[in-house]
Task: structure prediction
Amino acid sequence: MYISLSTMSTHLQALIIDDEEFARENLRMLIEDFCPDVAICGLASSAKEARRMVEEMNPDMVFLDIMMPGEDGFTFLQSLEGRNFQVIFTTAFREYALKAIKESAVDYLEKPIDIDELQAAVEKVRKYREEKKRGGIPEERMTRILKDIALTNTVEKTIIPTRDGFAVVRNTDIIHLEAAENYTTLHCIGGKRYVSSKSIKTFEDRLDPEMFFRVHKSHIINLTHHLKEFSRAEGNIAVMSDSTQIPVARRKLQEFLNRLGQVS
Result:
């Protein structure tokens, strides 16, 4: 837990909730450096820890990661009755923005977080709280986010949490993903590999289903950009652009062949 020494009453008291330590610390530093009217009252690594902090600290605003293991950001919010704080979701995935609106978020920030967008989101919280006291409802915040969503229908990049921070990779550069126990290795063009502590199911839920296909319990392939050939000579094998041979599970075969028909 982190308690700020700056507790002036004019400051917005903020709680940061994110299961990734690097993400929590990075956002904390950005707020301290570029949002002087915000005081960090706590850092939480889970929904369980955050519930206790909300009760103890009564924050004005919460920076909330959407994708957390066990209990995600939406479930956390739904578990609170009569919450009296504004929410700024932090997410690497644009498709969650609309749901964020429905959960009464003031705004959302895409990772990696842009300083100007962070400052704008904090200002929205301040204005929202002021207008709420006067009985006004700032509907323009919803309009702006909806327009933003409409500009991009697919997620173009993937944020990969790593041991030292995170990597930002274009989806078109990802060849295939491979699961090993609780880790996932992303194989990319140029021989680059990234190992993430996130499960392959987490990536399956996040990646564009028009581009990626889970052919096996341990493998996801970039069907659109990196499938080189399909062979039945020695079982059902998808050969990728880096020459890796990926098994296609029997239960996935028909759906896989149907997808090939759509791609062609």
In short: Residues 115-133 form the longest helix (19 residues). The domain at 157-263 is CATH 2.40.50.1020 (OB fold (Dihydrolipoamide Acetyltransferase, E2P)). The chain has two domains: 12-151, 157-263.
